């Protein structure tokens, strides 16, 4: 499996997966994914050996160091391929990109999505807020989570270990 820049030819598949993964919460359309790419946001896909899309993830970046911020816009993995580390791999790739800009990272996650909350906590996120009725039309609440920007010292340690 490999992670690479999301291909425009995969946007229809992304929209199909959204319908399966988020049916009660206004799943994104192909056009919504295209708009994210058109705005220059960082989108990646997880591909198997046959180049089939197994998952996708997106990150919006705003500003420049030392004031850079990033927001995880989406992470989705085909249900047939969940629990195999694909979501973790996609998240790590997004965080690597954010770390390159020394950006703090924010995201929203459903308060009832315990697996995702634990994944984010293992990668340095903490809950910093609650957004009531954030997801529509379901009305589900969301936690806002934040991961601090890495320090220059932490980044050089990571680079040395590679």
UniProtKB/TrEMBL annotation:
PANTHER family named among the record's database cross-references: ACETYLTRANSFERASE (PTHR43420), ACETYLTRANSFERASE YPEA (PTHR43420:SF44)
Keyword Transferase: yes
EC number: 2.3.1.128
Gene name linked to the record: rimI
GO molecular function: N-acetyltransferase activity
Superkingdom assignment: Bacteria
Keyword Lyase: no
Naturally occurring in which organism (per UniProt): Saccharopolyspora erythraea (strain ATCC 11635 / DSM 40517 / JCM 4748 / NBRC 13426 / NCIMB 8594 / NRRL 2338)
The family this protein is said to belong to: Belongs to the acetyltransferase family. RimI subfamily.
Protein name: Ribosomal-protein-alanine N-acetyltransferase
């Amino acid at each position: 499996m490999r992670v690479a820049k999301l291909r425009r030819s995969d946007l229809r598949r992304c929209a199909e997966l959204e319908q399966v993964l988020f049916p009660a919460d206004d799943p994104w359309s192909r056009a919504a994914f295209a708009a994210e790419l058109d705005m220059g946001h960082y989108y990646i896909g997880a591909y198997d050996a046959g180049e089939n899309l197994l998952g996708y993830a997106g990150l919006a970046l705003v500003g420049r160091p030392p004031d850079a911020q990033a927001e995880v816009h989406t992470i989705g993995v085909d249900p047939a391929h969940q629990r195999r580390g694909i979501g973790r791999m996609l998240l790590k790739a997004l965080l690597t990109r954010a770390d390159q800009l020394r950006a703090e990272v924010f995201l929203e996650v459903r308060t009832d999505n315990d697996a995702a909350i634990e994944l984010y906590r293992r990668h340095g996120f903490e809950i910093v807020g609650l957004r009531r009725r954030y997801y529509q039309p379901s009305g589900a609440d969301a936690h806002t989570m934040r991961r601090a920007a890495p320090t220059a010292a932490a980044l050089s340690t990571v680079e040395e270990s590679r």
